[in-house]
Amino acid sequence: MKKAILIIILLVFVIGGFFGFRFYIKYYGNNIKNDGYVLIPHNANFKQIIDSAAKYVDNKETFEAVAKEKELDKHFKAGRYHFQKGLGNANLVNMIKAGNQSENSFRIGDFGDMYQMLGKVTKKTELDSLKFVNGLNTIAAEKGYNNAEDLKKYFFIDTYNFFWTVTPEEFFRKFDDQYNEFWNAERKAKEQQSGLTRDQIYALASIVYKESGGKKDEMRTIAGLYLNRYRKGMKLQSDPTVIYAINKQTNFKQPIKRVFYKHLSTPSPYNTYANKGIPPGPICVVDKNSVDAVLNAEKNDYIFMCADPARLGYHKFTASAEQHAINAKAYQDWLNSKNIK
């Protein structure tokens, strides 16, 4: 009798363990064969969700079964979801139902215009570039601007994190908040002391950024030089503004490695060889250092600068036209020796 009871108890444990193990494997055991990200758009149907997950899950049938049991076909949130090793079907389904998506990183670089930038950004968003542009055009109009291009000053060069499902409003809000935080009382006071408008500060900052190649150590010197030229009523004569003028005409499809004399007459309000004063707006997205360089420009007497072939990426500065001619010839000779055209 006791032996029979022990056998029954043992069978109960074995059978219970068997079904318990199957339950665990179905719901909580690892079902990921490949790490990756599943994109689920707002208008996805159940089949699309299952098909998108299929390339990452080890057992599509058990994933689909758990998804149905948990009514994923009725309740899900759009997003970019990280399917990573160790996750079971219940974890995966709950993640999608709760909307626990993973952020994506975006690098905002020194883009020449907003449309160029948005074309890159929207490669990592659910919405396409046209919808993003239209959204930012609406935001620009609400702020009293003409279009999205006028919002360039709100953006700073850096790496940012956003969800794949980010809307134009959510996207811009991050930069709008950052812009307002940047322009604190101290910087506003320096802005007023400079005698420049906010748009002029950003236009100069963009020239400083391009001329310096983004290197902080020359920025304040370059800012001081261009402020000297501006206050003396001289043309700024900045090569990056000529390049920008050409790029605007060619929709940024013609790379310019070297500015020649023929380029200097390119008709554009941004061309500082053709026009006196500061351009009407920035020629690129800038970083915070370049704006601070304009607000804290070095006090110097320089009015000329030329790339230094002995220290690539840096410049020679002078207040002498004669010395500048010598510096410029040395640089032109170096360009010719390298066959840079």
UniProtKB/TrEMBL annotation:
Q: Which reaction does it catalyse?
A: a peptidoglycan chain = a peptidoglycan chain with N-acetyl-1,6-anhydromuramyl-[peptide] at the reducing end + a peptidoglycan chain with N-acetylglucosamine at the non-reducing end
**Which keywords appear in this protein's UniProt record, sorted alphabetically?**
Cell membrane, Cell wall biogenesis/degradation, Lyase, Membrane, Transmembrane, Transmembrane helix
Q: Which superkingdom is the protein from?
A: Bacteria
Cellular component, GO annotation: plasma membrane
Against InterPro entries, the record matches this protein to: MLTG-like
Catalytic activity, EC? 4.2.2.29
**Pfam families in alphabetical order:** YceG
Asked if the Swiss-Prot or TrEMBL record annotates the protein with the keyword Signal, the reply is no
Which GO biological process annotations does it have? cell wall organization; peptidoglycan biosynthetic process
Give the NCBIfam families listed for this entry: endolytic transglycosylase MltG
What's the name of the protein? Endolytic murein transglycosylase
Name of the gene: mltG
